[in-house]
């Protein structure tokens, strides 16, 4: 069981979404943030750095959006759908773009393959949370 799920189990009042869906999104957001940061670092070590500029920029943006989204959706006490929904939508959009770009490099760069997988998982988890929010 993830720490997110364990913490949600301790929450005194009702949640704004199914605890399993919320925990899965929090975990995916955290993993995607980490994967994008690590992929950026690996991209910077590639021989053809000019080829990696778009990937680096998308990974940096994705890491920032995922981290912000994770912070907001994890705070169930002050849930505001006017904030959570646009953040989740932005996360879905950047994870899709970043996943597409990492997917271009994935066949010959294992670090991009891992990042693509994290982006796809996060995109799906955010879609599921967006659908489940009350």
In words, what does this structure look like?
- This protein is 75% helix and 0% strand.
- The chain is mainly α.
- The chain has a single domain (16-132), classed as Up-down Bundle (Substrate Binding Domain Of Dnak, Chain:A, Domain 2).
- It is elongated and about 50 Å long.
- The mean pLDDT is 91.
- Oligomeric state, counting identical vs distinct chains: single chain
Low-confidence stretches are none
Number of domains: 1
The CATH topology turns out to be Substrate Binding Domain Of Dnak, Chain:A, Domain 2
Number of helices: 5
Name of the CATH architecture? Up-down Bundle
CATH class: Mainly Alpha
Structural class: mainly alpha
Mean pLDDT across every amino acid position: 91
Helix content: over 70%
Largest sheet report: none
CA-CA gap between termini = 24 Å
Number of DSSP-assigned strands: 0
Radius of gyration: 15 Å
Beta strand %: under 5%
Apparent shape: elongated
Write the element-wise H/E pattern from the N-terminal end onward: HHHHH
């Amino acid at each position: 069981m993830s720490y997110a799920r364990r913490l949600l189990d301790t929450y005194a009042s009702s949640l704004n979404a199914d605890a399993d869906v919320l925990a899965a999104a929090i975990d995916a957001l955290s993993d995607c943030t980490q994967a994008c940061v690590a992929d950026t670092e690996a991209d910077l070590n590639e021989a053809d750095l000019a080829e990696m500029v778009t990937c680096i920029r998308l990974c940096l943006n994705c890491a920032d959006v995922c981290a912000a989204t994770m912070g907001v959706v994890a705070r169930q006490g002050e849930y505001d759908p006017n904030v959570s929904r646009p953040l989740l939508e932005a996360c879905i959009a950047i994870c899709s773009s970043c996943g597409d770009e990492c997917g271009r490099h994935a066949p010959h760069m294992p670090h991009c393959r891992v990042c693509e997988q994290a982006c796809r998982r996060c995109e799906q988890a955010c879609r599921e949370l967006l659908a489940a929010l009350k």
